[in-house]
Amino acid sequence: MKIEYYGHSCFRLIADDGFSIVCDPFGAIGLPLPRLSADLITISHAHYDHNNASAVDAPEVLDRAGEYERGGVSIRAFPAFHDDAMGRKRGSVLIFEFLIDGLKICHLGDLGEAPSRRLLAQIGKPDVLLIPVGGNYTIDAGTAHTYICLIDPAFTIPMHYALPGSTVDIDPPEAFLSRFPREEIRFAHCNHCEFPPQGTTANIIVLDAGKGI
Question: Is residue 69 domain-resident?
Fold first, then answer.
């Protein structure tokens, strides 16, 4: 399967048979978002930088907790807090789990709460973890690192960090990346990667949203 990154928290997941899912398409945040098409859109929460479903040509949007089966893909959506105060600041978000071509991909949305036994049990051990690292509105670099140490996914793709042109007040990815040995990081130098990736032992895959779109 293939994962494409378009910046912020927006990805397109493409199964080997072509079935595709766009996660969290963003609105006016200063970044370009090409016109995308997909079989399905998932929305983690109703903030403008995550819920621009009109930017994607797709017949269906999933934005509620539950378990679904679409195009041979098993999908599970469950709630988490958008902040460190049990939702009192910014409410809740949905975490989406996808089983595609035998791989478990977990998109943490705008996760803002610290790790807990409850949440870690729900997340389990994904093959690919898509995790916010920019802080302010989500967990920061240090908390993201803690999640990764506890979850131990096969691969991690950081998301929701500052990019050139972005108007969202979040940190760049360097604070997150600096917590890992250089040999554990692979810079793809393009916006997509096949999973499982070939020819690398790196666990952290950094996709470049500005290249290859």
Answer: yes
Helix (H) or strand (E) holding 120: helix 117-123
Task: Report the run of H or E that residue 149 belongs to, with start and end.
Answer: helix 141-151
Locus of tokens 């199964």: 15
**Among the listed residues 21, 29, 31, the one whose alpha carbon sits nearest the alpha carbon of residue 62:** 21
Each residue of 77-129: pLDDT tens digit?
999 999 888 888 988 999 999 999 999 999 999 999 999 999 999 999 999 99
Q: CA 199 to CA 177: how far, in whole Å?
A: 21
Q: Which domain, by its residues, includes 136?
A: 2-206
> Comparing C-alpha atoms, which of 180, 168, 167 is closest to residue 158?
180
The CATH number that applies at residue 197 is 3.60.15.10
What is the C-alpha separation between 124 and 171, in angstroms, rounded? Answer: 27
How many domains does the structure of the chain reveal? 1
One-letter amino acid at 39 equals: D
Distances (CA, A) of 50 to 64, 66, 196: 14, 19, 26
**195 assigned to some structural domain:** yes
Is residue 188 in a domain?
A: yes
Chain mean position to CA 139: 13
* Local structure of residue 114 (DSSP, 8 states): P
Tens of pLDDT along 30-79?
Answer: 999 999 999 999 999 999 999 999 999 999 999 999 999 999 999 999 99
- The Cα–Cα gap between 16 and 2 comes to 8
Query: Is residue 59 included in any domain, yes or no?
Result: yes
